């Protein structure tokens, strides 16, 4: 008599797990190898990898948060000098918070520092890939850093200034639209208002986090530059035209800072005056507006008289900023229909001369100069006002040089300039 066959429960995987596959492989029903920034099946098929799903749970959410320990591991077969990203959960590091939330044993600011560091490491390692793949590559770490920043902000921790500075810096350099970097600046201003109402408050708060005045100087600088660039680039929305920071914040920008970016302080004040005029035009009288406009023109004339006085890299960079101020003055408002032909002709000639001067300055400063990257704003204003193919070639080469660097910068600026160049007659 045969013995009855005993059926034992099977263990192991049943079916194929698809929840972590890239979007392209998932839609095609193909097994994904989970490589980042592009998986091998997509590369072999010649398809654009659709990226990987990323779930974000903000610190203010009532659902438990499962933290991750981020590590960078080398994987063979990827782009040179790049690595894949492994994300593994660590249950041992969890404990239940006061409101039933799960959190790591680390203090939020320490966890934030770890995630911010991991993201910066990925930025450095991903310098060899192109812009779209680079964004896919660094996105998970960027989202993790934002989530941790939200936790720090929830406690109004001044350490968040450092995180906002790094994220704002990334926003300034990597935004697809040149000048659209105001969002982290708004967060920085809100956090600053929570802690500081005066310069004395900053000096009191400064020692625990270090270099706070310098951080605020960067915020104020990007704020003014962003308003000017957005206005002249065509974004005339009222919310985009208002300065976020105040005069006493901008007063923290000192001589060393202006030397670093190669911009004369007088030119910065001219840009501040223009930026203020964008949001206060309906709040002041015509006489006050005229006096302010006359002051800007006198300041610009005084700066133009200094063109060419210094021939080193610093002097050339300062000259590009002076010419950028002229372009800003001439193009801030649309030409009036009542303007006579002679005035319009002089205006166009002045614009062309300013663009030519910026192009000569950019071509004369070597790529190895620390000031080269700081000529981006003058290059942008020259680019959107270029009228000849020669000018376009110089500006195009400048943007490509920035993008070819180990840490690509201003990825969307060239596309915005190219859009303006479509109407330039071809020889």
From TrEMBL:
Principal location listed in the UniProt entry: nucleus
InterPro entries documented for this protein: Fun_TF, Zn2-C6_fun-type_DNA-bd_sf, Zn2Cys6_DnaBD
Positions with biased composition (Polar residues): 89-106
Domain of life: Eukaryota
A GO MF term: zinc ion binding
Keyword terms: Nucleus
Gene Ontology CC: one annotated term: nucleus
Segments for region (Disordered): 82-108
Compartment(s) where it occurs, according to its Swiss-Prot or TrEMBL record: Nucleus
Residues covered by the Zn(2)-C6 fungal-type domain: 21-49
PANTHER family, A to Z: TRANSCRIPTIONAL ACTIVATOR PROTEIN UGA3, ZN(II)2CYS6 TRANSCRIPTION FACTOR (EUROFUNG)
Protein name per UniProt: Zn(2)-C6 fungal-type domain-containing protein
């Amino acid at each position: 008599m045969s013995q009855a066959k005993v059926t034992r429960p099977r263990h192991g995987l049943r079916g194929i797990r698809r929840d972590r596959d890239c979007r392209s492989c998932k839609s095609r029903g193909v097994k994904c190898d989970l490589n980042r920034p592009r998986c091998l099946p997509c590369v072999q098929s010649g398809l654009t990898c659709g990226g990987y799903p990323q779930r974000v749970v903000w610190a203010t959410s009532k659902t438990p948060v499962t933290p991750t320990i981020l590590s960078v591991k080398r994987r063979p077969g990827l782009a040179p000098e790049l690595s894949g990203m492994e994300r593994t959960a660590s249950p041992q590091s969890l404990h239940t918070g006061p409101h039933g939330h799960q959190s790591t044993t680390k203090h939020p600011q320490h966890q934030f520092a770890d995630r911010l560091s991991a993201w910066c490491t990925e930025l450095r390692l991903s310098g060899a890939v192109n812009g779209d793949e680079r964004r896919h590559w660094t996105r998970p770490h960027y989202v993790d850093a934002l989530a941790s920043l939200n936790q720090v902000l929830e406690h109004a921790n001044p350490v968040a200034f450092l995180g906002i500075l790094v994220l704002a810096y990334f926003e300034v350099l990597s935004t697809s639209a040149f000048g659209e970097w105001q969002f982290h600046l708004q967060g920085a201003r809100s956090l600053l208002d929570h802690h500081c109402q005066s310069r004395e408050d900053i000096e009191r708060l400064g020692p625990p986090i270090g270099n706070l005045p310098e951080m605020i100087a960067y915020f104020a600088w990007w704020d003014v530059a962003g308003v000017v660039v957005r206005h002249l680039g065509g974004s005339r929305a009222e919310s985009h035209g208002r300065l976020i920071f105040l005069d006493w914040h901008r007063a923290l920008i000192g001589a060393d800072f202006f030397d670093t970016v190669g911009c004369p302080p007088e030119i910065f004040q001219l840009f501040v005056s223009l930026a203020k005029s964008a949001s206060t035009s309906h709040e002041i009288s015509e006489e006050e507006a005229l006096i302010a406009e006359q002051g800007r023109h006198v300041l610009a004339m005084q700066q133009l008289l200094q063109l060419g006085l210094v021939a080193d890299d610093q002097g050339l960079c300062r000259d590009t900023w002076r010419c950028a101020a002229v372009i800003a003055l001439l193009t801030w408002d649309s030409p009036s229909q009542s303007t006579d032909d002679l005035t319009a002709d002089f205006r166009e000639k002045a614009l062309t001369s300013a663009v030519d001067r910026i192009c000569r300055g950019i071509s004369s400063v070597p790529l190895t100069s620390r000031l080269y990257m700081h000529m981006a704003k003058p290059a942008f204003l020259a680019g959107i006002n270029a009228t000849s193919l020669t000018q376009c070639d110089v500006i195009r080469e400048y943007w490509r040089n920035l993008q070819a660097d180990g840490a690509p910068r201003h990825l969307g600026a060239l596309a915005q300039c190219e859009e303006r160049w479509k109407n330039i007659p071809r020889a």
